[in-house]
Fold each of these.
Amino acid sequence: SYVLTQPPSVSVAPGKTARITCGGNNIGSKSVHWYQQKPGQAPVLVIYYDSDRPSGIPERFSGSNSGNTATLTISRVEAGDEADYYCQVWDSSSDHHYVFGTGTKVTVL
Amino acid sequence: QVQLQESGPGLVKPSETLSLTCTVSGGSISSYYWSWIRQPAGKGLEWIGRIYTSGSTNYNPSLKSRVTMSVDTSKNQFSLKLSSVTAADTAVYYCARVTHGGLAFDIWGQGTMVTVSS
């Protein structure tokens, strides 16, 4: 089955840029979606279709996808961005199903 | 705006069937895919399955033999049954709406904790 690999953790100082990668075989051929999950809360969609932002998500959140890596970029990081982030794709290659990445904990220093 | 609310027992005995319902409010359940996703404590997200309002389903291959989903459009609800549960099924269970071409989860319930224990 399709596997999405993320770094377990990313640390970033306030005001700097955080980049979270999501690796998968030829992931550039798929649409990638990103979720932010704060402790005790449900995930929130922050990026869909690789780089689109839902209404209400700050422009500081952006995404890209090419080759074997998708990236979520958080610019001008704020303390409130500290959370777990998950990438996700729809895998139609065999059994049709959704796949989540392993998750990345973003810590704001 | 559309809101989702999970409901069901918080404690299930091993080998029994876990049953949860998700109630959709603030909008119609029609013409969308709806999903169940779970998250064991301290771990990542695992997709369980999805159902369209026609009743068409897709399940996670790793859980397919134990999962059944159904939808009741008259009540704006959809449901999950997971049979033969073990301690490994202990998790927070979320229901979610699937949108953006059936590819992403844009609205989530708050989640409900289900513990499998005798």
Note: The radius of gyration of chain A is 13 Å.
Amino acid sequence: EIVLTQSPDTLSLSPGERATLSCRASQSVSSSYLAWYQHKPGQAPRLFIYGASSRATGIPDRFSGSGSGTDFTLTISRLEPEDFAVYYCQQYGSSLTFGGGTKVEI
Amino acid sequence: QLQLQESGPGLVKPSETLSLTCTVSGGSIRSGSYYWGWIRQPPGKGLEWIGNIYYTGNSRSNPSLKSRVTISLDTSKNQFSLKVHSVTAADTALYYCARHGRPGYYYDYMDVWGKGTSVTVSS
């Protein structure tokens, strides 16, 4: 099973700042089959990025995904108030596993 | 617009069977050749994939849960269901249903999710 480790656990930033979230896999993720989700309390997780770098429908371009192999990054160029949430990475190249999440807080 | 809604008992006794249903609206569960999945989140923890089912009825489960999980489909009601047998406190979680993003891919990202339903295992 591919284990995904997200860091940091918590990112404390202010609106307008840049956020960089990391997702590291225990082995290479084939075909960059990696997704990122935003999750807010009481809401359904929302797909933001798939294929490591493709934005899902309706996701603003301040969100970008990058990486390959075992190291992946989600970058939020300028944080908006609605961006403060928990973000999970998920790999789907070999079975399905999720990372432990990074909380982006004000 | 496709929507998913989980439903089922919020409290299950230890050793019994947890049963949840996901109702799909705004589209047919038979169309598009998608996989439909279940994911859970224990309190204070991350997300865990439970399993999925194809529109034909073929299903796959997380090896860590496989022997206790049954996933089924009722196309006449546009629903799919989850059963977790012999539950313990460790099965207490928020349970989500979701649709896979690409037709025919049994391991995939999920592009449509339900809002989740809370299940507590306690006597």
Note: The mean pLDDT of chain B is 94.
